[in-house]
Fold this sequence. Notes:
- The chain is mainly alpha-helical.
- It has helices at 6-20, 31-40, 46-58, 64-78, 85-103, 107-112, 115-123, 130-140, 150-159, 168-176, 183-199, 222-230.
- The protein folds into two domains: 6-24 and 147-230, Endonuclease Iii, domain 2; 31-140, Orthogonal Bundle (Endonuclease III, domain 1), CATH 1.10.340.30.
- The two termini are 20 Å apart.
- The model has no long low-confidence stretch (mean pLDDT 96).
- The structure holds iron/sulfur cluster.
- It comes from Methanospirillum stamsii.
Amino acid sequence: MSEWTGTDLLLFYKALNEAHGSQNWWPSDTPFETIIGTILAQNVSWKGAHDAVRALTKANLMEPAKLYRAGSDIITPLIRSSRYYNQKTQKILLFVNFFLKKYDGSINRMAEMPTGEVRSELLALSGFGPETVDSILLYALEKPVFVVDAYTRRIGARQGWFPETSTYEQMQDFFMRRISPDVYLYNDYHAQIVFLGNHICKKNPVCAICPVKNYPGLHECEYAKMENTRV
Length: 231
Ligand code: SF4
């Protein structure tokens, strides 16, 4: 198994960015909408989450106080496309209540707080796991926190970065120890991994069209190497 350095990981990113272009995450009008989007995007396709965001926007509810006042009876039917809509309504109301009470509904005030402090506050909200919280920190508050997910796990295990059984923190550490904090890079790196996992490095990977396979100077993908020796 090859030892990956920060330089290797930057080359990996370069290969993906060259092939797929910058992903321009998070596609929303305001940081508050990004936060609501990250909650709605849990365990659902992007389209399902996007339709729910649009429905809330169309109903003129994409503001903390309005959303809180609307309550579950109004929110739930609007976000049906996001699946688990009852749970997600409760999560939205929980977050908005916290956001109004602690930060007076101000993204700037929240973003001014030390990253570790806001992270702990958000993780203390029921139903807010590290992936959702770190997405909020990175994509809404522009804090340099590397987000990892199930695609990162699959691709990382196949590349030989870390075992498939690694914890969220171990996977996150793998990147953050090697790549200096950089909001733009962290943003697009995670987005590129999601694109790769969604379209190419799927459950049954399509290695023949993978931009990181045989990219000059990059370590060979462990999974692809193993498949080649089987042929
Ligand atoms: S070469 Fe194949 S297994 Fe390796 S990252 Fe690309 S698609 Fe996934």
